[in-house]
Amino acid sequence: MEESQEIIVNAGDIARLAGVGRAAVSNWRRRHEDFPQPVGGTASSPLFSLPEIAVWLRANGKSFEVSLGDLVWQRLRTSADDLRLGELVGRVGAFLLFLHREPAAWRDHGMQSLTRMEAVTPDLPGSFDLRLDDQALLRLVAELAAERGPLDAFEFLFERYVEAHSRQLSVTRDDVAALMVRLVTPDKGVVLDPACGVGTLLLHAGTPLGQEINETSALLTAVRVLLRGAEARIVAGDSLREDGLAGRLADAVVCDPPFNERAWGYEELAGDPRWEYGLPPRGESELAWVQHCLAHVKPGGLVAILMPTAAAGRRPGKRIRANLLRAGALRAVVTLAPGGPDLWVLRRPDGGRPPSQLLVVDAGEDLSIVEPAWRAYAENPEAELSGESRTVRIIDLLDDEVDLTPARHRPQQGSLDFLREFTDALARFKETSATLSDATPALELLAERHDLPTTTVGELAKAGLITILQAPPRMSADEGPLPVLTADDTAVGASPSGRTTLDPALVMVRPGDVVTSVLGAVRLITQSGAALGPQLTLYRVDPQRLDSGFLAGFLRSADAARTHPGSSRLDARRARVPMLPLSDQRRYGTAFRELFELEDRLRETRELGETLIRLGFDGLVDGHLRPCDQGV
């Protein structure tokens, strides 16, 4: 494969491509006089020639391989400075959209076909010249599209871009984005995001409509949704000052707006008709976004918008909060995590009778409780709810503060309920923690390190000892009769929480399978009955030649060794596994299984401990508990 002399890499890139930590690269530079010298960058962030690095690594026996995707990415990084990198990624995306829509034109006419690119992609926003003059780069991108498909090729490059600019880009969490869309979106309809960023919320929408102030981000969003075959319209511009979709009403609106923006247009927008519930204070830009969203949804349509926790109780915004409540526009306030953000769900009034109660939910990072609570409330807003979800009478909220913070409205338990919950939590915590000392595996400490000959997971797969499987492309894990093991389940050791419909292409997990996520979580499967979810890879061993616990343990070790500030996703095919007889593998596998089990017990103990601590604080504060002398 071509490794162009123009391509340069930084220390983090070298670490990722070599499958080591950033510290290892620093050690190589210090200890090896023949390590290539920087060809650019700064003293604190030097840049190196990729071909020189490749030669040095191979000469020193280091595992190193540049995939086609990495080659394209590194060439992109070399071709533009950080300020223009997003624009270049967007222009590559425009080329991939052209390949997606007219694959035969490129195949038959090559570079000459690009004269049609602007005509083929008229729905891309912004004022950029989308043409690319780097013919070598275009050919590499076309190869990558042929290898992975235009959509997967662009998502690979987009993820690299997000990783490189993680401090500059604000990206909505995937699970939160999916939840927001599920809560408010009808089966079919137009979904608007007026502050769409790089498009995360709109990826879950059927017919996306969006606006974004940053032209580069608007272009990236448009490419992402259009490559998925959606009929989308994305415009660039400031939604509050220059509403590019004025008069357009969507079936639902989702939004993750910028927080704490003081220069949002307070002076020039003072008389704007969107402020139906009151002029937003200068320091309450989020309340401007709330009303902008309501102005763009059809009567009876729903809005899901992320808000800073303080917006539920800040004094300057109390009049608007009160007006939203009186009109029946604000329907739910959900705390998604202890530090925020909160999720507000609103409904544009349509002339019907407003509800007398507001739904408040303190999810405490357990997003699974949000959707059932909202569905129950939407079916009957006057019904009483229990648990971490409850309804609060709106008339009780219309006081001098109009504080909607869910934690403030947590229901006080009766003495018998509290006694039962606290006693149960205390007993379970003591029982679980008492077993930890007996759960450690029997391990022998060696006086000297014992090196073992190794091979890679990729080589084991080539030899037929491992079968590697993945979920079908574009698989949905949101609804259906069949349970799905998701990436989040794998990360926290939880039971399958996703749902999907029956499909012959699904990969069903079996006991003994090893599952890894793209972010490095490793799980040894003990129960069958669930489908493998997106972003997961399954490793199914030949039990007559390879022990699954043995493989899972060394995959887990490969992830731990990879973790560092500049780390990327785990490439399990490169993970090294010792070459041992099956009997020795099984001994290692037993120890690894005991460690996995200990990890699960520790996780359960921590969760029980957190419940006990919460109940302890609550009980001392509300009078259900009081301090006593030790032993009384």
TrEMBL record:
A GO biological process held by the record: methylation
Question: Cross-referenced CDD domains, in alphabetical order?
Answer: AdoMet_MTases
Provide the protein name.
N-6 DNA methylase
What are the UniProt keywords, alphabetically?
Answer: DNA-binding, Methyltransferase, Restriction system, Transferase
Which Pfam families does the protein's record reference? Answer: N6_Mtase (PF02384)
Keyword hit for Transferase: yes
- Domain DNA methylase adenine-specific, by residue range, is 152-338
What are the GO MF terms of this UniProt record?
methyltransferase activity
Q: Which InterPro entries does this chain map to?
A: DNA_methylase_A-5 (IPR003356), DNA_methylase_N6_adenine_CS (IPR002052), Restrct_endonuc_typeI_TRD_sf (IPR044946), SAM-dependent_MTases_sf (IPR029063), Type-I_RE_MTase_Subunit (IPR052916)
Query: PROSITE patterns annotated for this entry?
Result: N6_MTASE
Methyltransferase in keyword set: yes
